[in-house]
């Protein structure tokens, strides 16, 4: 339960981070000091936060109504335009807060200290070992459910970071990025292939002659639910890496990048020929090679293997196949779109309706497009197929059509609609959750760019985009569900 709670708040913090780096570089009106940020407490009302800081901040996102309404407000640091504080309110009450760059103190941690830290340690134990309390980058909840994410700079690295997650004052997870470059333990392909899921962590350590670097750890120390992720570097190249995931000290999954230097190619014709439900041997017979095992997990009927091929004729393309219990369940092609010959215009895209058959789409467009992804039993009502077409006017334009059981379930377009649809910051702020599409259109003065559509009736979802007046990259995204505004999100406001 605590681990799931922490995962949610880590997601919130990562979302905040994404907001920060998508914003326009123009000066932001609403500023905050580090002292003001630390003064703000979880549980405060939005009005209390506004009074403490002296302004209402920029509205980044809003969804829901009443007690379930979620609102995200952003401020920029008073000392640096790169520093940002974000506050998340639920029902007008502060649920969580996060900051980047407001606390300018440098808190460092060594690899030895990071390795020594154990889950269940208190904040005081960590502080005593490391010599500093670290930077509170995110806080949520109070008392026994208080979640705090603390960050340190990884000593001896340029960009290395260590994140520690505390729930109720005790560590439930630790995570690092950057220390991996100092790994002394090496691994070759033969050793990697020898190691099997179900091995103990001690067996892996004995075979490889070292324990590797702990990248992440969560759960009670020594419990059957403790999750530990360990990394090794390839013996032939420092650019290769192997990752092992242990649950309760038992190897649950393994993955490798660059360790297998074999070149396994698959043509687009082979990719489209392969059918969901085929065995690994059937795929190998068609392609002519077994592919690269990039990841393995589980055993027996729950064994999952991800196999990768290089997309023939593409510079960076890949074909990824997922096998469960020895049978193909999902195939995804990236890069084959370079060979797309089927074109689509905005008028054709707009003509296609949710509920059309795949044959109707193919007939209208004069071709079946390029298969990007497919999963589910061949021909079943649950099979999901994603097909891509390129724009008839611009090579940078494209459309993605998603079929479920051969019926159009959703469609998405980028750059097919070249119209310019503007919105002001004041209009964005005035929009109310629950407004109909017609109300929004009438208020703004245009219908916006319909980026994607899915579903029908009360479950129909439509995503509409606008460009923000007076900004370079400012964008507003509105999501309608069942014809009513459900979520609004804005980036790039001055």
TrEMBL record:
The record's listing under InterPro entries reads: BamE-like, Beta-lactamas_inhib, BLIP_dom_sf
Gene3D superfamilies hit by this protein:
3.30.1450.10, BLIP domain
One Pfam family recorded for the sequence: BLIP
Q: Does the keyword Signal apply?
A: yes
Entry keyword set: Signal
Signal peptide annotation: 1-22
Q: What is this protein called?
A: Uncharacterized protein
């Amino acid at each position: 339960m605590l681990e799931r709670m922490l995962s949610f708040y880590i997601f919130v913090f990562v979302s905040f981070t994404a907001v920060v780096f998508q914003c326009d570089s123009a000066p932001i009106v609403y500023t905050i000091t580090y002292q003001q940020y630390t003064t703000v407490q979880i549980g405060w009302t939005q009005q209390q936060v506004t009074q403490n800081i002296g302004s209402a901040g920029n509205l980044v996102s809003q969804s829901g109504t009443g007690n379930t309404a979620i609102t995200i407000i952003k401020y920029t640091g008073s000392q640096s335009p790169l520093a940002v504080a974000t506050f998340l309110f639920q029902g007008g009450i502060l649920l969580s807060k996060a900051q980047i760059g407001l606390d300018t103190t440098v808190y460092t941690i060594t690899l030895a200290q990071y390795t020594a830290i154990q889950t269940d340690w208190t904040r005081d134990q960590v502080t005593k070992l490391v010599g500093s309390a670290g930077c509170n980058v995110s806080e949520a909840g109070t008392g026994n459910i208080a979640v705090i994410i603390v960050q340190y700079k990884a000593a001896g690295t340029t960009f290395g970071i260590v994140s520690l997650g505390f729930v109720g004052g005790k560590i439930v997870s630790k995570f690092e990025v950057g220390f991996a470059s100092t790994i002394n333990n090496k691994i070759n392909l033969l050793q990697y292939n020898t190691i099997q899921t179900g091995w103990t962590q001690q067996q892996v350590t004995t075979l490889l002659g070292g324990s590797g670097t702990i990248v992440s750890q969560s759960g009670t120390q020594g419990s059957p639910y403790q999750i530990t992720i360990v990394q090794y570097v390839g013996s032939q190249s420092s650019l290769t890496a192997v990752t092992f995931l242990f649950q309760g000290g038992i190897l649950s999954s393994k993955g490798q990048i660059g360790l297998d230097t074999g070149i396994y190619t698959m043509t687009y014709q082979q990719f489209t020929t392969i059918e969901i439900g085929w065995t690994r041997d059937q795929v190998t017979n068609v392609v002519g090679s077994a592919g690269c095992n990039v990841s393995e997990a589980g055993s027996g009927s729950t064994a999952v293997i991800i196999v990768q091929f290089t997309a023939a004729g593409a510079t960076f393309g890949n074909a990824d196949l997922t096998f469960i219990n020895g049978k193909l369940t999902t195939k995804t092609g990236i890069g084959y779109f370079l060979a797309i010959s089927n074109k689509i215009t905005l008028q054709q895209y707009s003509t296609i309706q949710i509920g059309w058959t795949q044959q109707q789409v193919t007939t209208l467009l004069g071709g079946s497009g390029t298969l990007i992804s497919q999963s589910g039993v061949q021909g079943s009502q649950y099979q999901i197929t994603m097909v891509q077409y390129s724009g008839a006017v611009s090579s940078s334009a494209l459309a993605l059509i998603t079929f479920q059981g051969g019926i159009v379930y959703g469609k998405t377009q980028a750059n097919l609609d070249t119209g310019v649809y503007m919105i002001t910051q004041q209009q964005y702020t005035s929009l109310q959750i629950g407004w109909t599409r017609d109300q929004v259109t009438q208020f703004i003065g245009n219908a916006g760019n319909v980026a994607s559509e899915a579903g029908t009736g009360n479950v129909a979802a439509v995503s509409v985009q606008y460009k923000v007046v007076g900004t370079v990259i400012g964008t507003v995204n509105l999501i309608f569900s069942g014809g009513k505004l459900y979520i609004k999100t804005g980036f790039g406001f001055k």
